[in-house]
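Q&A log
Question type: sequence-to-structure
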Amino acid sequence: MPKPVISIVDDDASVRSGTMDLLTSLGYLAEEFTDADEFLKAWRCHGTSCLIADVQLRGMSGLDLYDRLVASGRVVPTILITAFPDAKDRARALRAGVSFYLTKPFEPDELLACIRAALARRVRDARGP
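Response status: OK
Response body:
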């Protein structure tokens, strides 16, 4: 079974590189993107298994990116991260089907637990009932 690919979409270079370093040090395949448009242009090629996206991106927000993927028929387990938590945004994201909504700064173990749960759910969903 191929390794899952985790895509990171964040306009903050330090968050992207820190997350990339963490994931690759643990053996994950990871790729990074500076905005939603860059990700959307490449996502079909990479077979993303889990998406980590900032809520506030230039152009399209992380939640709008998730909604666009769902509308296209591609449901990707998604972890939204934000430095500006908002209860309404969080509730809307979770109602829409986003897997997790984390507030920056978060602990690496917290992110890893979310990734593991999202990937496990993806495998269960693929197997069906």
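Response note: The longest strand covers residues 48-54.
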